[in-house]
Every structure is written in C-alpha cells, then in structure tokens.
Amino acid sequence: MKRIILAAVTILFCATLPGLSDDAYEQQKKAGKSMVKQQYASDIERKEAILRKMREYIKQINGRLKKTKVKVDAPINIDDVTDISKTEDVHSNQVVPPRVFAFVNDEKVRFRTDGSTSGKIIGMFDFAEQVEVIVQSTDTETIDGATAPWYMVRRANDNEDEGWVFGAFLSKEKPAEKPKETGKPAAGTKVTAGDYAVPTTGFQSSAFGYRVDPISKKADSFHSGIDIAAPNGTKVTATAAGEVLQAEFNQYGYGNMIIIQHDKDVTSLYGHLQKYIVKPGQKVAKGEQIGMVDTTGYSTGPHLHFEIRKGGTAVDPNAIMR
Tens of pLDDT along the chain (322 residues)? Predict the structure, then answer.
C-alpha cells in the first residue's frame, strides 16, 4: 500500500517542484531574506526623507501665516498612511509555482535536519497532518523495501517548523484511517524473539499501542513503545549490540535520549534518562550499561520509555524481547 501511495506522491511532487538540492534551497532562501532586509531598510530611509520634507514645508507655511493666527496642519495622520510594515508578499516577473501540500500517512513521523536517515531528528508530525512541500531531494533512499526521495516540508503553525521527511510517509490525499498496529514486527523484519533483551528492571506501566496520553490527556493517542517504571538511577542497558547514533537531550518529549543502530535498519530508543554514559559513534554490546532511569522530558514519573523501530516503523518490543 505504501508503494502505491509513494508512486502517487512522487509523480505529484516531481511535476510541481524544482529539482533543487537542500544546499541550493538554503542558499536561495538566504539570498531572498537578505534582499528583503535590504529593501526594507531602503524603504524606511525613503519614508523618513519624505516625512522630513513634508513637515518642513508645513512649518514654512505656518511661519508666513503667523500674523493671521491661522495654522495649517496635516489633514491626516501622515505616519499611519506612510507606515511601512513587514509582509510575506513576493513580487517577481517570474511565474510563481503553485503551493504543493501533502498529508502525513503514519503515526509520529519524524522529520530531520537533512534528507537522509543520517539527519538529526528535530521533531514529529502527527497522523493526517497537512504539510506544505518545499523541495524534493535529488537522491532517493530505500527504507524497508520502499524507494523514494526525501521532501523538505513545512508545518502550518506559528513557528513554521521545517524538516525533511521520507517520501513514503507522505500522500496526496488525506488518509481516512489510522494505520493499524498488529503488535508484531513490520514486514521484512528479521529480528526474532530472544535477539533483544529487556533494557532495565522494573514493571511495565504503559504498553505499546493506543492509549490516553498521560500528559495531554488526549484519547486514542498512539504510544510507540513501552514504559518501564523504575526508581531514579536504575541501570539502563543496550537491548542488543550496536552503534550509538544519538545521545542527547530531545526537546520533543523524550528528554535525555539514546538511539542505537542494530542490524541494518533496526534501531532502539531509550527516553527520559537521568544521563547517558555513551556517545555517538560508540560501539556497545548487548547488556552493556548506557544510562540511568529518570523523568526528564514529558514524563509523569521515573521510568524508561523504550522503542524498537524497523525502517522507522515502531514495533512492539514485547513481541521480540526475551
């Protein structure tokens, strides 16, 4: 199903977007901002010059009329009429291409700083969220059997969050239903029971799947991992051997977080940590300590949020841990 959606998205976007690389896009964006800033400063200077002349002219007239006790004043508020404000309007002699929009077709789709899986994760999009497509990458990538380019997209909010999303997670039409989670590994997953160990000691306080979000209280919110409640400082270990991709504070809810790359495109994520004792690029063994339990980020108490993902798709850790 994703391949069909991907084909439609790729045809749509390729037909409407210029073939710019992310570097070219950033250069174009920077040049545009610089041009607008210079024009704004020039307009302000011209405005002030005109106002000075008008005020001087009125002053001269009133000087001549002083004996008649008649005073001439501006019939309108000049400052309001000639005020210059910032605007998003763009004027060009070139044909402006139509804006292109798409919909996110999966739960908690992450967007990155660059158009590849090596890009840093900087946020998430919700299921069926509408985004504006800015530019398409020149290269494609294959993830879990799907080959597609990456797209820089923009969220329609006050902050106008931007980031790169893999094309398989976008569709032209708004999806009618949320993707069904079976609680089993995604298609093509070769991980088996016993390959991955429980990363800490404690009890499971929240399962994988839909639930009422403990922070937002939003019903039918999808939980992409499991929560293991444990006291602060409880040891957290690597669920399997791999290489540390990220070890940093995540501002989108995970708090102090570690992501480890395992076989091919399988990753594990550990959130709400007290601290991490590993760094990106470090090789870790199965069962090796990587951090400690805490409640950093969006959390209601000390616990480990633990995820396993295959090709970016969350799978139930309970289905493959021993």
Answer: 444 444 444 444 444 444 444 555 566 667 777 777 788 788 788 878 887 887 887 788 777 777 776 776 765 565 555 555 555 555 555 665 678 888 888 877 878 888 887 778 777 888 888 888 888 888 888 776 677 888 889 887 656 678 899 888 888 888 876 655 444 434 333 434 447 888 988 888 888 877 666 666 666 677 788 888 889 999 999 999 999 999 999 887 888 999 999 877 889 999 999 988 999 999 999 999 999 999 998 888 899 999 998 888 888 887 777 5
Tally the residues of the chain: 322
Element (H, E) at 309: strand 303-310
Options 1.10.390.10, 2.120.10.30, 1.20.1250.20, 2.30.30.40; CATH of 2-14+98-171: 2.30.30.40
Helix (H), strand (E) at residue 38: helix 22-64
- Specify the CATH superfamily of domain 203-319: Glucose Permease (Domain IIA) (2.70.70.10)
Cα 57–Cα 60–Cα 62 angle in degrees, nearest 5: 110
- Alpha-carbon distance 310 to 139, whole Å? 22
Whether pTM > 0.70 for this model: the answer is: no
Distance CA 116, CA 139 (A): 9
CB–CB of 14/156 below 8 Å?
A: no
Buried b (16+ CB within 10 A) or exposed e, 78-87: eeeeeeeeee
Residue type, 207: A
Query: Where are the domains positioned within the chain?
Result: 2-14+98-171, 25-81, 203-319
| Residue of 184, 186, 161, 214 whose CA lies nearest to 106 | 186
Domains 2-14+98-171 and 203-319 equal at CATH topology level: no
